[in-house]
Structure formats: structure tokens, C-alpha cells
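Continuing the series of single-chain predictions for the mutant panel. This is the parent chain; the variants come on the following pages.
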Amino acid sequence: PNGVADPTVSEPPAPPRMVQKKQTPTILFLGTMLESKGPLVLVEALGLLQRRGVEFHAVFAGPWRGSLTQERFDEAVSASNLSSAVQHVGPVYGKAKSETLLSADIMAFPTHYENEAFPLVVLEGMAAGLVPVTSNIAALPDIVEGVGECVPPQDAAALADALQKYLVNPELLHHSKLKARSKYESQFTQQHF
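Parent structure:
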């Protein structure tokens, strides 16, 4: 297994934040804004969640690649009436990346990239105490076993269901965040690698 740096090292260490009923959970997509990494599938799933009345805030962070452009993404967000719940913040690096990770609750990575193997971004999310919700391809089922959810790639309904499980249950979200961080500490640190 790979290992990644601990994003809490440069920040004051703190346990994953507890989601209170008054707080809106944040879903983070972090990575290349490439269609096969799943950002448009996530937008579709978020549209389903909004129609179900589930509250969330979603942040997409990463550079544009391939045929997915800012315009196409914005059109998808607008078509799903998500403009007030979704934002793209562009690429984040260094301290900004750590802050982005530490400000979220769920790492959504619905990839269907044909060469996916052992995505470090999911480890980075777990290191920051994010619940991973991802695709059941490559090494992802092994990475997130016991701490998150894997769904079939390009299945927006299954993705929405998996996200909703955590978004509507603050206690489950909190405990799953702690479990994700614990699994990172026991298996995916740079020292373990």
C-alpha cells in the first residue's frame, strides 16, 4: 500500500469535526477535473440529493483536463439547480490543499478512469478524517473497506444513496470520520509505506 503525508502536521491537530444538526456537511471532490475521474457523475448524484431534500455543500478542487471544461461543468451544475450548493475552487496545493481537506466531511471520488490503481487522493482524504465514498474499481474497495462506501462506476443513483447515508446521519458521519482517520494512521502513513 502507498502512504501519504499527514495533512494535520502543518495544521493544529484536531479530531475530525463533529457535524451538528445546524451544520451543513461538506462533500469534497479533489483531483484532476477529468471526466473519467467522475466529477459530472458526482454533479448528477448531487442533483438527486437536492431533489430528495438532503442538505449539503460540495467543493470541487482541481485543474481542468481533457474535454471537461469550466463551461461544461457550470452547465451541468446549473441544469441540476446546484449553483448555490456547489463551487469549483480551482487547483489547491500545499497549505491550501490541507485546509481544503480539513474543512470537508466526505471525500467523493466516483472515478471510472481506466488506468486507476491506488488513488492517493482517497488516502489524503482519510488522513484528514474524511469518509471516502468512491467507485468499486482498482484498489479502492480494499482502501475504504470498513470506513466508507464503494459504488459501481458511473452510477449516479448508487452514489447519491451512499452519500445520503452519511449526510442524514450526523452520528454515523462522525464515527466514520474517526474510523477513516484511524485506518489511515494504522495503514497508510508515509512511515508505514
